[in-house]
Amino acid sequence: MLAAAVGVVVASGAIVGAYGVADTVQSIKPGIHLVTAKGKTPAAPQVDAQSGAVNILLAGTDTRTGQGGQFNNSADLAGSSGAGSNDVTMVLHVSADHTHATVISIPRDLIAPIPDCPGPNGGTVPGADAGMFNTTLSRGGLSCVVLTAEQLTGLSIPDAALISFDGVIAMSNAVGGVAVCIATPIHDPYAGLDLAAGTQTLVGSQALAFVRSRHGIGDGSDLGRISNQQLFLSALLRKIDSAGVLSNPLTLYQLAHAAVSNVQLSDTISQPTSLVSLALTLKSISMSNMVFVQYPVGTDPSDPNRVVPDSSAAPLLVSALRNDTPLVLSGNLGVGAVAAPGSRPAPAAATTTPSPTPPPPASVSPARPSSAPGAATPAPTATAIPLPSSVTGQTAAQQTCTKGN
C-alpha cells in the first residue's frame, strides 16, 4: 500500500515547486529488474492513468544492513543481514475500472510451494514443494517474492517495491505521526513498545515498533501483526487523504522525499512518469473501496507455529482477484484488532451487490491482466463476491483499534 501512497504524493507534488520536485526525483533509487512469470518487462506507462487492472507487490525487509541506529549492533547484524527476509508482503490489486482496490497481506509464516527463482549472481535457485514464504527474498531477491506471490494470488504482478526499517520511520516522520487507537495496553519488550490504551500518535522509531510488534498484539502471532499493520496503513492513508496533508506543500514534499528516498522500486515503475500514472490511477478510489484482507490460512498440521493456505477460502479469494470482482468482507477483523467504540462497519461499494453464489474457484496460476497504455478498460463488474468469515480484514475507512495480549 505504500506504493499507493508514493504515487499519490508524487502526483500531488506539482504544488511543491520546481526545486522540490527535482530534488525528490533525484532521490529515486535505481530500479530493480524483475524476472516475471512471463519472462518479460511491461512498457512504462504514459503520464496519465493506467488502463486496465494494476498489480503491485510491496515487500518489507527485516535486514539490519545499512540501517544504523538501534539496529547497528552485532546481534542484530548477525541475525538478519544482506537482503534479509520479507517479513511483510502485500499485494495491491486495483480493479480494471479503477473503482476499487484490494490489499492482500501474505503471512510471513505461510508454508507454500516456492517456484524456481533467479539466483542473485545468475543461474537459478531451485524451488521447493513447501517452503516458508518469508525466505523468498533471501532465496532469490524481489523477483522470487513476486513469483511466489503470483502463484498464491493468481495475479500477474509486473511492479514491485522494497522498503526497509528506515522507510517506515521516514514516512511516519514526514506526516507528523500517525494517530492509532489502542484498545488495551500494549507491552512488547522484543519490539521496544509500551503503549497505554487510548489514541496514540506514533512517529519515528515508535511507529516502526508498532508495525513490527508481534508478541504484544492479539494472540502474539504474525497474524495479529498483520491486522495491526492494516490498521496503521488505513490510518496513514486517511491522514494523507485529509485536507491538512494534501493542502500543505511542505508536508507533501517531505512525504514524497521520504518515500522515494527509502523505497527501491522495480524498474517498471521507477520513472517519475510511472509514479504520476499510478497516482492518477488511484486518485478516484474512496477509502471505503480500499479493502485490506489477510490471505486465508489455517494451522499447518505438521507445525502449530506455521500456517498453510485455507483450502476453501483461498480459492474464493483467488477467483475474485483473477475475475477482477469487488470483495465484500464478512465484518470479521483480524485477531489483533477490534472495532473502535461507536464505529460502524464501512459500507460496501455502492456499485456492488453481494451475490449469494460466488463463481467457482479459479486455478492458482497467473494470468497477466492488460495494463499497457491504450489497452481497453473492461466495463465495471456489477456483482461482488462475499468472502467467508475466515477471510479477515477491514476497509481503509473503518475505524479500528489494536488489541494488546
From TrEMBL:
InterPro entries: LytR/CpsA/Psr_CW_biosynth (IPR050922), LytR_CpsA_psr (IPR004474). Residues 86-241 form the Cell envelope-related transcriptional attenuator domain. It comes from Microbacterium ginsengisoli. Pfam families: LytR_cpsA_psr. Residues 389-405 have a biased composition (Polar residues). It comes from the Bacteria. This is Biofilm regulatory protein A. Belongs to the LytR/CpsA/Psr (LCP) family. PANTHER family: POLYISOPRENYL-TEICHOIC ACID--PEPTIDOGLYCAN TEICHOIC ACID TRANSFERASE TAGU (PTHR33392). Residues 341-405 are annotated as: Disordered. Residues 341-354, 364-384 have a biased composition (Low complexity). Gene3D superfamilies: LCP protein.
